[in-house]
Design brief:
- The protein is an all-alpha fold.
- Helices cover about 85% and strands about 0% of the residues.
- It has 16 helices and no strands.
- The relative contact order is 0.14.
Length: about 400
């Protein structure tokens, strides 16, 4: 990867940092928004739901419609629209307008993320795709570490409008930088839509989508209720939560880099399987660490590490399994991820309410992730049989 392409990948990661911060910061300022618009916390929480649904539904539709357009133009347009959406948030005088802004954010951020993955795969040599994807995912994990805490601090200092104004202005600057760095990149090949859908309907791709959905569902069962798990089950003091979350965010960032390196060195399938086995094992043991802060936090760190290590591998998996429909395949994968997050949060809530504790949430998470592992193992086995049969037929 030459220095210009490396710089471009980092610029894409910075764009992901901005869009991810806009997505994640809302959860941290829900109470402020609820008070400002004189609504309940539950209603304010619909801002998160609106984002997830528009991301999950709108992204694959727009990616499909724009798949033949030059990738650099689609990327820059999505980031500019994101910046304009920030202006709409600042000017929102009602909750309905802010909700509409979140819908636009979900779609524009989704298109930007998917297009960034596709561009990175085209910019770098095949043996460096994993590292490039890992760098872009690093933008998301950095949003957790720095973007959200800084956004909350700015909100407390200047008001919630200020954070969206700053993010919008930064988005325009990053769009200008990317426009300067990025060469013209052709859209996907003119493959008939029927063939694209046939690729998406293959066993190996469906298995990957099911793995993403179940993996993220499992993650959400635990992570949505991670704070009460750490305080009520492990016995961690509430004053230490912020520093622990910062440390876990750093672990996630390290995992993204390790995952990208692992894909380039050992291949995406091995990284996915190894990450899933470690993920399930750590989740299964976690409830047994009840009352032990060091052991419990160590196991949670392993869960976070395994989760982020698998991230670059999963995206690379779809790029290589559906090379003629990579953008569409990635967009569907990200949609399944968001649907999985929503499903897991609901299931985790049911578990916590029915048992009056979050102690058993990791076990529920481990079962769901194990189902995802079973799905992708079955898909890989079926693909091997198909390849073997094709090879035998070719020799005859």
């Amino acid at each position: 990867m030459n220095s210009l392409h490396r710089l471009t990948v980092y610029a894409l990661a910075l764009g992901v940092f901005l869009t991810a911060t806009s997505e994640l910061v809302v959860s941290g300022i829900l109470r402020v928004l609820a008070e400002d618009f004189s609504i309940s916390i539950a209603l304010a929480g619909q801002l998160v739901t609106a984002y997830s649904l528009s991301f999950a539904i709108g992204t694959p539709v727009l990616v499909s419609l724009t798949s033949r357009l030059e990738r650099n133009k689609v990327l820059i347009a999505s980031l500019v629209i994101y910046a304009l959406r920030a202006g709409l948030s600042v000017a929102a005088t009602s909750f309905a307008l802010l909700l509409a802004a979140r819908v636009i954010l979900g779609v524009s951020s989704g298109v930007f993320l998917v297009t960034s993955f596709g561009i990175a795969a085209k910019l770098v040599p095949a043996e460096r795709v994993g590292s490039a994807i890992g760098t872009i995912i690093l933008g998301f994990s950095t949003a957790l570490i720095l973007g959200v805490p800084i956004g909350i601090a700015i909100t407390e200092w200047l008001g919630w409008q200020a954070i969206f104004a700053l993010l919008g202005a930064a988005g325009l600057v990053v769009a200008a930088v990317i426009a300067r760095l990025l060469p013209s990149i052709a859209g996907d090949e003119a493959v008939p839509l029927s063939k694209q859908w046939q690729t998406l309907g293959s066993v190996i791709v469906i298995a990957g989508l099911m793995f993403s959905f179940l993996r993220e569902s499992g993650n959400s069962i635990l992570l949505t209720f991670l704070t009460p798990f750490m305080t009520d089950v492990l016995g961690l003091g509430a004053s230490r939560i912020a520093s622990v979350m910062l440390a876990l965010g750093i672990v996630g960032a390290i995992g993204s880099r390790l995952g990208g390196f692992g894909v380039d060195r050992w291949g995406e399938k091995r990284v996915i399987l190894l990450g899933a086995f470690v993920h399930i094992a750590a989740l299964s043991v976690l409830p047994l660490a009840a009352g032990s802060v060091p052991l419990g936090l160590g196991l949670i760190a392993i869960v976070i590490l395994a989760m982020f290590v698998s991230g670059p591998a999963i995206q690379t998996y779809f790029i290589r399994q559906a090379p003629h429909s990579a953008s569409i395949a990635i967009s569907f994968n990200i949609s399944f991820i968001h649907l999985g997050l929503a499903a897991g949060a609901g299931l985790g809530g049911v578990m916590a309410e029915s048992t009056a504790t979050t102690l058993y949430n990791p076990w529920g998470a481990s079962i769901v992730v194990a189902l995802g592992l079973a799905a992708i193992l079955a898909g890989l086995a079926q693909d091997r049989r198909r390849r073997h049969a094709a090879g035998v037929a070719a020799k005859q």
